[in-house]
Amino acid sequence: MTFEFLWTDKCFLTLLVLSILVILLSLRKQHVRRSFSIILHNPIAVSAGIILLFFITIGVLDSIHLMPMNHKAETTITILDNILAPIDQITEKTYSAPLALRQFISETVLINGVVKQIYPPLIYSAKIKTEKEKKRVITNTFIYALQCSTFAIFMSGLVLVIIRFSLRLKLFNLTPTSLSTLITLGILTFFVVFGYELSRTFHVLGTGQIGQDIFYFTIKSIRTGLVIGFLTTLFMLPLALFLGVVAGYFGGLADDVIQYLYTTLSSIPGVLLITASVLSLQIYIANHPGQFTTLAQSADARLLALCFILGVTSWTNLCRLLRAETLKLREIDFVLAARALGSNWFTIIRKHLLPNVMHIVVITLVLDFSFLVMAEALLSYVGAGVSPMTISWGNMINSARLELARDPVIWWPMFAAFLFMFLLVLAINLFADAVRDAFDPHQSHV
Length: 446
Hints:
The chain is mainly α. The protein has a domain at 219-439: MetI-like fold, CATH 1.10.3720.10. Helix content is 68%, strand content 4%. The chain has helices at residues 7-26, 30-40, 43-61, 79-84, 131-166, 176-198, 214-250, 252-267, 270-287, 295-329, 333-340, 345-381, 393-400, 412-439, and strands at residues 2-4, 65-67, 77-78, 107-111, 114-118. A 3-stranded antiparallel beta sheet has the order 1-2-3. A hairpin with a 2-residue loop joins strand 4 and strand 5. Helix 7 (214-250) runs parallel beside helix 14.
């Protein structure tokens, strides 16, 4: 096995590494350390951060592809695929409910010359024959997950005691932040172990129309959501930050040109622009098959192009907000004093303007991230989203929309996509809200 990285993998992992380096380098400044201390003393922020780290870890594991040494395989697998195997390799005939032993749809069979309607047993959970055995397995798994959760809480508490001992604090003084950390780690460990162990025997969230495991598809969709959110932000932020601050600080002709630019771009219907761009990319991929030798590469190119298009069309709102804030800040005394003392425009923007607009950047990017995760579902619905070969929450919702009209209702594909999308967006919103409060220079504690 050799490692292989697609373009979205390289961009996503590079962005994470650069973010970690920027955070570590910024810790040299006292006011930044004070802001991070405020975040670490916020129980909600710590809990949201732990959940967000869990999602990012899954995204990283799903971004490291493995290729056989002979390079004859048409598709690559990831580290996450190896962890979740074999649920990605065994498919059923059609729908099955969560934790079910039989298909959800009946079949007509001929038994001893008699035509009967039966619900065939599932292939994956064939070794569990009765409901009694099923309950016993679930109970044993529940107890095991509870034990792992208790062990995780104990080890986390031990680490906290060691940290408090090294800082010469009271060893067993349980602060709200410590309690929030222990509870979050315990609950997260319980559900991770419980879900993973059950997936060794059952289809935890059922199966879809062609028998695919919904639990596997939901977990694999995390990477797509993170890539769309983070890479679109990467493409959007430099344009919005530079043009917004420059327009507000210099005014005049530069301000007029930038205003005309984002006003014109805002007038173009976003969905139509994205649809036209995606269709153009599909034509390019079809005409240049030598550049995209596998289905994974063509799907990855479409995902990367979608992130770029969303970034190009999404920077206008942030640019407008930054321009308005910079127009106000450039008339404040400390900016006028810096200009009178001979500071050049780049130094004034870097030291005086950017730190005072970052709280707007953070909260806008978070709101846009939530919008982008949900926009992917909308674009997939109209056929302009990621490739059908890409596993994503949008494709899951698009394929599940007609299943809600069945009788009885097939509810679990839609529920699974909604649940994980909700958890990711909620964790990011809560964590970024605490980050904004901690780094906002207008707050009294900074």
